[in-house]
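Hi L., both proteins are below.
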Amino acid sequence: MDVDETDILADWKNNRFIRVIYDESNVMCLHLIVLTDIGFWAANADELKLWCEEYGCEQVGMTVEIPTDELYTLFCLRWN
């Protein structure tokens, strides 16, 4: 399938998650992850919940708030 270069949502459609880039003056958490592959996350919801509890991250709807760079790396290694 060819990717339309004008499709601004291409990253959202082709990944399990994306990281929201914040302006440093308006940071709610260090890393905010938007879970974009709804089917994958629905199938893995219980496991993601346990992972978040174990590592001190917070899942809110289709987002995960990650407080440190190290935990963001762990999240990427586990869920990518």
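That was the first. Here is the second:
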Amino acid sequence: MSDWKPLLGRITIFPAALFVPSAELPSALELFQKMWDAAPLNFQGPTNPLSPSSAQGKRAGLGVSCSVHPLRIDFTLSPVGRETSSELPRLAVIEDSKEFYDELARVARTLGRGLVTNSIVRVATFVQVISPAANSTEANVALMSIVPTQYRIALGNEEEFILQVNRPRTSEQVEKLKMNFITKWSVENFQIISVSVSGDAGTPLVAPQSSVPQVAQFIAASVAFDNNNVPVSPDKPLSSSQQASLLLEGLAGTATSLREGNLNIGKGFESGKFAH
């Protein structure tokens, strides 16, 4: 049986910026501190009006980040990378699926308490899980073993396979609002580039002149769940509580899709029901 693990999770909210361009968005630094009650390890402010601001840090065993773009605000969970440069390059995954699940749900509920005051017209959840493989044939086999029967096709050594479907339906939480439940099955190649740096405390880190970036390549079967609502009118934006309800409904949809594919990533997404 293939070993599937979470690779990435993201909660996104879309302000009505296209319709209300004068509304100023909060900075990633401000939102990071409010969301995780701590200062980020890194912060990059916008370099021009169209560039994002971004803040990154750690929470327990997860890498966490917030980025604010002119048209969207992302809260992202990712694996923690290598601790030392002496470690061999590896395709890092999130090992604690329960912690991953709990943090995604907590971010959704925190947004439901009015963290962002701007008018929001759309929200989305994104969860990607992968199963590393030795080659494309092995990845194809792993992928087809969890694709629902009605979508399966015969694969051998084909490369760069992608299949995406959307199964939209009316929201159970917000009346008359349509939601998209998108699943993408694919075989993906990942590259990890490592560069050796040196420097003493208090001095800039520099790469030795003889240093050559090392590139490690990995292949994996991948399933991504991208669930979101059809944008509402900016005249009637989503309330904070509606944002949380739709985000939790999107995560519940991911749990349902995982079960339908007999895709076991560990604890956290078992029930498909998220308490508000």
